[in-house]
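Backbone-to-sequence.
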């Protein structure tokens, strides 16, 4: 499976502003933030995209969402935030390692672009 920039961040081959880590996942600040708070939560397991998950990932996916909630709370996003998983080409995914965006600190708009 192709190595990605996020695999390099997990291995500490390249630096990132890491805000949370456990055995299953890592959360770090996006290098090009689209909101005052923009954090990515990623599994350490190499899963290219949401459509590659299987029933084996049931517990992992639940863990990631609960960590999204925890990281958002710790970032002070008590007035709400947006959670995004860009998936595949039409979804606008640019890094082929599953990641969950947490965007907050400003009023979000709908529909997204
Ligand atoms: P996608 O467009 O695939 O949903 O999101 C990929 C995100 O990764 C983008 O928001 C982009 O700014 C972020 N990103 C890409 N390369 C790096 C990097 O080297 N470090 C960090 N922290 N974020 C990155």
């Amino acid at each position: 499976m192709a190595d990605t920039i996020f695999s390099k961040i997990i291995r500490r081959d390249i630096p990132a502003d890491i805000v949370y880590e456990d055995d299953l996942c890592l959360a770090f600040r996006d290098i090009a933030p689209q909101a005052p708070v923009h954090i990515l939560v990623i599994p350490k397991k190499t899963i290219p995209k949401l459509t590659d998950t299987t029933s084996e990932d049931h517990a992992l996916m639940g863990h990631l969402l609960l960590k999204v909630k925890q990281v958002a709370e710790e970032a002070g996003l008590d007035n709400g935030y947006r959670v995004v998983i860009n998936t595949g080409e039409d979804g606008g995914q640019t890094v082929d390692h599953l990641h969950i965006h947490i965007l907050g600190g400003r009023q979000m708009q709908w529909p997204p672009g």
